[in-house]
Model the fold of this input.
Amino acid sequence: MDRGVLSDAAVVKASRDFVCARLATYESAEEAKFLSSIARTASGSLENTVFTVLAPDGKTPLVPAGRGPHHAFGGTRDDSAKETAAGLGRIAAQHPGKPGVMRQVPYLEDLRLGLNVASCDLLPLVVVAAKDAESRKKVEDALAPLAWNTAFIGRLEYAAAADLADLKKIDGAVQREGIVVVEPDAYGLKGKALAQSATASEADLRKALEAGLKGFVPKSKDSRRHIEEGHRAGVYWKTEIPVTDPKAPK
Done:
C-alpha cells in the first residue's frame, strides 16, 4: 500500500516542498534511537518502517508517526495517495520554504548501504570518490545541482567512497577521483562500472550520469524467490544493529 502511495505522481510532486529523509532504521543506532522516541508501535519495539512529518526545527511532529502515510493522513487503500498529497500540501502552505538550489548530494549512509539500497530499488548508484575532503567538495559542488535536476532526480542513488580503495568493490572502476555510475549486483554486495568521470566539470559529470542511465538495465525480482536463492548461495545481510520488528523475515 505505502509503495503505491509514495510513488503516486501527486504525492511525489507534493514532496518537492519538503526535505525528504530516507530512513536507515537498523543500519544506524543513532537513528534508531530517534525513531523509537517518536513512533509508538504495537510491539513496543522499533519496527521496520516509520513515517512522519516534522516541523522545520527537525523535532516537532506535525502528524502522528506510524508505519506509513496512511497512519498520518488517513484514507482507505483507494484514496490514501489523494489524502497524503492533500495533507502534504496543507503542511507546505503553513511552512513555506526558501527558494534556492539544493547544494547537497543526497547520500546514503555509505558505499556498503548504497550498493544494497540501489540493488533493492533497481536503480544505478553514483559513487563519489576522492582522496580528501577538499577534493570531494569540488565534485559535490558540481554534482549536487545535477542530482536535483529534473533530468536525474529520483533516477539514481548516491554514496561516497570512504577512500579510493573502496572502488575495488566495483568491477571496471578506475581507482581515481571523480564519480563512477554503478550497476549493483543482485544482492547489493558489489557492482560493475557503467560510466565514469575523473573531473569535477559539470558537463563531464552530466555525460557520465546520462551514459550510466542509458547503460543500466534493471532486472525485476520476485522477493520470495530472491531470498530463497540468496540462502542457497550463502548470501546474508548483517544489519548494524539487531532487527526488532517481530514481523520481519528471519
